[in-house]
Amino acid sequence: MDTGCVNAKGADAQLNILEEWARAGHLDLQRSAAMLKELRGAARINKAQSLERHPKLFMLDQSLLNGPDVLAGPDLFETIAGILFPTARPMTENQLFDVEHLRLHVRTGEDVFVTLNPNDFVTRGRQGDLRRRGIWVLSPTETVALLNSLYQWARAV
Fold this sequence. Notes:
By secondary structure, the chain is mostly helical. It has helices spanning 13-23, 33-38, 42-50, 77-84, 93-107, 118-121, 126-131, 140-156, and strands spanning 30-31, 52-53, 112-114, 136-138.
């Protein structure tokens, strides 16, 4: 989840649905370590701390087989930075946080990156460019619709 999806007041209906499904054990909502660095406001920080943190990356001679760590995916920092902010040199701190969120999303093998920030992740062809690299960036509404359609398909099979 992106920083903007910290639903501290429970005011976003689609995020409420995703949170309900997470409480029921149907999906995991996770945050990157960068989220807590970027957030402001006690309520939002407390809410973010309640989200599961991305798993640690598997490291030879340090991680246990069948432990909580995951085998690291590719480090696509430069690729992601080039897609999200192709002309920003140097990038701002917030831009670096956005790249880091997606970078860790890929490295830990997550499925969908949920964001309410279309300007940085969706517009100007970004969503399509990311998808072509296997990175699914969706809004909460798109995520709920996708999961509902997959559930309906699975029930029909």
